[in-house]
Amino acid sequence: MKKNVLTLALVAALGGFVAPTLLAGDIDPATVIDIKQTDLKLYLSAKEAYTMKKANDKVILIDVRTPEELQYVGHADGMLDGNVPYILNDLSGYDEKFKSYKITPNSDFTTAVSDIVTKKGGNKESEIILMCRSGDRSSKGASLLGKAGYTKVYTVVDGFEGDKAKDGENKGKRTVNGWKNANLPWSYNMNKDKMYYILN
Predict the structure, then answer these.
(1) Going by C-beta distance under 8 Å and a sequence separation of 6 or more, which residues neighbour residue 120?
(2) Distance from the CA of 195 to the CA of which of 8, 30, 94, 106 falls in 20 to 30 A?
(3) Strands 100-105 and 87-95
């Protein structure tokens, strides 16, 4: 925090502009659990993602959850540039191990992200933030985009819903952190121009 204040003071004294990335990413990559690690090692908390996007609208925020999750759980209201699911629900099958529908990788992921980036006037060096439920899928998506040549893909480590409480009355519930639990702007209302459509 002290370092950030000194950076701000120095840049202000020189009359410059502080890019959001100078203040973003206080999360130490060494503290990020394995399942949330990315090849690019760029991590944000939900609060940092909000601050970064609010400070610079050129930052691209993409939610990588399924369209169903955005509709029934909510999404980052007014800040979302698009929805590109990393995986899709396969409603024709059931996964006994996870007690849910089977899932399939979204083979359109990189192409659909590229479309959003291009629409926003960005490129592979643009700052992109990926968010999912709790940081697992967004980390995989960030690594995939890194392999495709993107250089500044951040993942929100606590995601939209946050991590599960390990004990107490909320044990097993997603009440620990995340966009919703931080009381950041969110809504159930969906903007049709920013949602992902599966064409049959």
Answers:
(1) 58, 60, 81, 126
(2) 94
(3) antiparallel
Cα–Cα distance measured from residue 106 to residue 85, given in angstroms and rounded to the nearest whole number: 7
| Alpha-carbon 84 to chain mean position | 11
β-strand pairing of 152-156 with 127-131: parallel
Phi, then psi, of 14 in degrees rounded to 5 = -85, -5
Two structure tokens written together for 71: 């509709």
71/91 Cα distance (integer angstroms): 17
Instruction: Look up the CATH number of domain 19-194.
Output: 3.40.250.10
pTM equals 0.84
**Phi, psi of 43, rounded to the nearest 5 degrees:** -125, 140
The C-alpha atoms of residue 126 and residue 96 are separated, in whole angstroms, by: 40
Quick one: residue 125, left, alpha or beta (phi over 0 = left, psi -120 to 50 = alpha)?
A: alpha
* Lowest mean pLDDT across 47-61, 105-119, 184-198: 184-198
Amino acid at 22: L
pLDDT tens, 105-127? 999 999 999 999 999 999 999 99
Average model confidence (pLDDT) across the chain: 88
What residue segments make up the domains of the chain, in order of their start?
A: 19-194
The owner of tokens 């509709």 is 71
